[in-house]
Amino acid sequence: METALEQILTSFCKTKMISYLTAHPEDFKEAVKLAVSDKQPYSWRAAWLLWSFIGENDLRIQGHIKTIIDNISTKEDGHQRELLKILLKMKLNEEQEGYLYSLCVSVWEKINKKPSVRYTAFRFIIEIAKKHSDLSHEITYLAHDQYLDTLSPAVKKSILKMLREIDKN
pLDDT tens across 94-131, in order? Predict the structure, then answer.
């Protein structure tokens, strides 16, 4: 039997989902639990809703960061992308950054993955590289044609723009 949140996730548009979660804050933990689970079609949608719903460094997510990171690699591409987008909004400690950086490099290097998840992983790689300039040599390696050739022109252009910005710093 579907919970009220599960029903909302499959029955309504994004604004109604957000309105529901705003009106029912008690369901926030269920949304997080669904987001890291493998209960489709709810899990991907819960992650997508959370990304749209939370604020920067949202305290309600802070206690779940490790769980989110630990579950990313087991998810399909679109689900991975939504979980990464949640984490892009969060302030991570050094250990979390290091683990997620490695995971994002692994996602980026898999050229058969969807460009949108690779792009999101690369955004995180760039964010970490901005904080740690010693990673610049690794970023140069990750920008080789073998990783860029499978991307659409628009995604490739965005990646190259990020690389130019980091070169300025």
Answer: 999 999 999 999 999 999 999 999 999 999 999 998 88
45 Cβ contact list (under 8 Å, min separation 6):
9, 10, 17
When divided into structural domains, the chain yields a total of 2
| Structural domain harbouring 160 | 95-169
Domain boundary among 75, 91, 107: 91
Q: What is the pTM of this model?
A: 0.93
Instruction: Check whether residue 80 and residue 111 sit in a common domain.
Output: no
How do residues 33-80 score in pLDDT, each as one tens digit? 999 999 999 999 999 999 999 999 999 999 999 999 999 999 999 999
**19-52: burial string, b at 16+ Cβ within 10 Å, e else:** ebbeeeeebbebbbebbbeeeeebbbbbbbbbbe
